[in-house]
Amino acid sequence: MKRVLFACGNGIVTSTMVAHKVADYLEENGVEIKYDQCKVQEVAAIAGDYDLVVTSGQFNENEIKTPVIMAINLLTGIGEDETLEEILEACRE
User: How many folded domains does the chain comprise?
Assistant: First the structure.
């Protein structure tokens, strides 16, 4: 089971919306995950404990080794299907 970190500006509203949408999509496709949420400012300090970071905020991705998927389009709806598929593939690896 993959561990996924969802990050947004305050670690509350946006990351909750994205986390629920992703978890539901993955479950529909037979993939279960464990996940937590945080502020983007916390990502560098804790990302190493996770298999994937899904974010709607900006941070310096060079500071971490964990794969990162930008998921702002899960809020806008534009390109949502492609991002969900990218996350699904990352969680299947």
Answer: 1
